[in-house]
Design goal:
By secondary structure, this protein is an alpha+beta fold. The protein has a domain of 155 residues: Jelly Rolls (Sandwich), CATH 2.60.120.10. It is built from 10 helices and 10 strands. The strands form 2 sheets. A 6-stranded antiparallel β-sheet has the order 1-2-9-4-7-10, with helices on both faces. It has a 4-stranded antiparallel β-sheet with strand order 3-8-5-6. The longest helix has 19 residues. The radius of gyration is 19 Å and the shape is globular.
């Protein structure tokens, strides 16, 4: 596993735990990285992600459908909105970079900003094209004051919420999905099943069945992180997959790699720093 100390997790305080799942900070300004070490591999995720680039540039790496050479996008804006992503993605920085990404629960997007996560599936856009102007102004002021950056960003998100906060947060995606299902059942008494399913998808961005994919992947990432030589049949069983084939298909869907390739890269490839952090979460 890489020992480069350039990435860290941030857990939300109690006041925003019902909005923020976690934050991730990447800072390579003090490191002399090779070009391949400046790649950043991200898993598919049900979360809405708000990102700030405080130093340097980031480009998305786009692979043509015909399998040709990867192509770099234009530099990403300094404030970025990413909707729930059903496929893994890769970015690259041409030099040192300092950025923070904060994952929001999809149902919180409606409470805080008044927009539906389901309208932005697989989309990456400048934050100003998606969020209300007043919210963008508030979020853009974060990082201009003294103190830890994540705490400033968290406080800005809290101000955008205007008191529209649920009482409990969720430690894992499993806990969030369970709590969301219970809230749905409590508020939709007498509603037909199909109507409840449609409402759930509007709240969460994807169906309950689709979201189970990420719950299993979250468990699998943690298990792979904990084991030096994973036994795949055991990992599949413990993570909730029906069999090893099911496990292999879903790991590839979320990460883009087979379980064996994924485990090797997670342990040795600097580009997989995000997966290592998520495994520790």
């Amino acid at each position: 596993m890489s020992a480069l100390p350039c990435a860290r997790l941030h857990h939300p305080s109690r006041k925003t735990a019902s909005i923020i799942h976690l934050g991730v900070e990447r800072d390579t300004r003090a490191l002399d990285l090779l070009p391949q070490q400046r790649l950043n591999c991200y898993p598919a995720s049900p979360l809405v992600v708000l990102s700030w680039v405080f130093h340097g540039q980031l480009h998305m790496v786009q692979t043509p459908v015909d399998g040709g050479s990867p192509v770099l996008s234009e530099p990403l804006p300094g404030m970025l909105f990413a909707g729930p992503s059903r496929t893994p993605s890769i970015s690259w920085s041409p030099g040192p970079v300092h950025a923070i990404s904060i994952g929001l629960y999809p149902d919180a997007l409606k409470r805080v900003f008044g927009i539906e996560a389901s309208d932005f599936l697989d989309q990456v856009l400048p934050m100003e094209q998606v969020l209300p102007a007043a919210s963008c102004q508030t979020l853009g002021q974060a990082g201009t004051e003294e103190g830890p950056l994540f705490e400033q960003l968290e406080a800005a998100i809290h101000r955008c919420a205007h008191g529209c906060l649920a009482t409990e947060g969720a430690a894992t995606l499993h806990h969030w999905l369970t709590a969301l299902g219970m809230r749905m059942a409590a508020t939709r008494t007498g509603t037909g099943l199909r109507q409840m399913q449609r409402q759930f998808k509007r709240w969460a961005g994807q169906s309950q069945r689709e979201l189970q994919l990420y719950v299993r992947a979250e468990r699998a990432f943690a298990l792979v992180q904990q084991q030096e030589n994973p036994v795949w049949s055991d990992v599949a069983l413990q993570a909730g997959y029906s069999d090893q084939s099911h496990f292999g298909r879903e790991v590839k869907r979320v990460s883009g790699f087979s379980p064996a390739q994924f485990a090797q890269r997670m342990k040795s490839d600097e580009a997989f720093w995000m997966y290592r952090l998520l495994g520790e979460a």
